[in-house]
Design goal:
With 372 residues, the chain is of the alpha/beta class. It contains eleven helices and 14 strands. Bound molecules: pyridoxal-5'-phosphate.
Length: 372
């Protein structure tokens, strides 16, 4: 039996009746396009805002647009620099460049792989206007020192929560600590739609209104446009699906955390680095990332046994071809660079069977030489 990295089919089967009914309702009402008055989109926005504990959630087409739109809403553009982690999905940096600003990379924490808050100040300049902490793999960045620095330097803080729906930092919900936050509802995320979808969150009324306008052609009213925006709307069908799934998210998060604890126990004697938990964070395990030597061999053994794995990320952003022109050197991002060769994501999802975790651990135990 093959084991995927994330089992979206099992997830659908577990709530099939609810999902099918929700989709059917949208189709019968032909409530396809979101803004400005689609009740399914509005309802999801309200539910997600309540879940987070913020004043506004603004739905949009995907998590990348969410970052791009918020940066624009804050007026960030040419001549500005934005601090982003070296180890993240490219969207975080792409969205900065799309606004004509410069993404400036910050190296990773050696244990958590998130942005290392100790390394932020050395990357800042007079042109720094914003910082985008990414709560990577489901674990929050160490926000208190980051927020203190941002307050002192007057930077805008946009939390990228694409991998961290429901994660906590010292009891505070990810996405409620900065000026604004972005979410992806890509199918494989902890809260995923049946296609692309995204969202933004903030307590700032002015930013909320501006971001909404940008996401919907600068719309003020019918055929009345206050600015040139774009089309970045969430579909009614996606919103209805997300409303159904949001109700299950807390239970799914608990299950992910249980699976992670099982992995920890089963892999305790295998010579690898387990995912470290920061004492300030409640990790929601979007990914379960270990670090191994001889990664290719481990991947091959798992693959022979029908077990899928992932690498997040095989190349840290400064070393991608996309940023080659900037000439970054490995010694500028030593932690991110070193992690590139060892990171390995194992299957994790709420429906993952305990017996499968046992099997994965056994294969890993055989593939990795015993600790000497
Ligand atoms: C998935 C992801 C995004 C982008 O989301 P899309 O919905 O795929 O555009 C942004 N940042 C991070 C860290 C992500 O993991």
């Amino acid at each position: 039996m093959s084991v995927p990295l994330v089992d979206l089919k099992a997830n659908y089967r577990s709530i099939k009746n609810e999902i099918d009914a929700a989709i059917q309702a949208v189709i019968e009402e032909a409530a396809f396009i979101g803004l400005p008055a689609n009740s399914y989109v509005r309802m999801f926005e309200e539910e997600f805002a309540r879940f987070l504990g913020v004043r506004h959630c603004m739905a949009c087409a995907n998590g990348t647009d969410a970052i791009e739109i918020l940066l624009r809403a804050y007026g960030i553009g040419p001549g500005d620099e934005v601090l982003v982690p070296a180890n993240t999905w490219i969207s975080t940096a792409e969205a900065v460049s799309a606004n004509g600003a410069l993404p400036v990379f910050v190296d990773s924490h050696p244990d958590y792989y998130t942005m290392d808050v100790e390394r932020i100040a050395e990357r800042a300049s007079e042109r720094t206007r914003a910082i985008i902490p990414v709560h990577l793999y489901g674990q929050t960045v160490d926000m208190d020192p980051l927020l203190a620095l941002a307050r002192e330097r007057n930077w805008t803080v946009i939390e990228d929560c694409a991998q961290a729906h429901g994660a906590l930092y010292r009891g505070r919900m990810a996405g409620t600590m900065g000026h604004a936050a972005t979410f992806s509802f890509f199918p494989g995320k902890n809260l995923g739609a049946f296609g692309d979808a995204g969202g933004m969150a903030t307590n700032d009324d002015t930013i909320a209104e501006k971001a909404r306008m940008i996401a919907n052609h600068g719309r003020l009213g019918k055929f009345d446009h206050g600015l040139e925006g774009r089309n970045s709307r969430m579909d009614g069908i996606q919103a209805a699906i997300l409303s159904v799934k949001l109700k299950h998210l807390p239970a799914w998060t608990d299950l992910r955390r249980q699976k992670a604890a099982l992995y920890d126990a089963r892999l305790a004697d295998v010579d690898l680095k387990l995912p470290a938990r920061a004492d300030y964070a409640r990790h929601v395990f979007h990914l379960y990332v270990v670090q191994v030597a001889e990664r290719d061999r481990v991947i091959a053994s798992l693959q022979e046994n029908g077990i899928a794995t992932g690498v997040h990320y095989p190349v840290a952003l400064p070393f991608l071809q996309a940023y080659r022109v900037r000439g970054f050197r490995p010694d500028e991002y030593p932690v991110s660079y070193a992690a590139m060769t060892g990171l390995l994501s194992l299957p994790i999802y709420p429906e993952l069977d305990e017996a499968v975790i046992d099997r994965i651990a056994r294969v890993m135990g055989r593939a990795i030489p015993v600790r000497s």
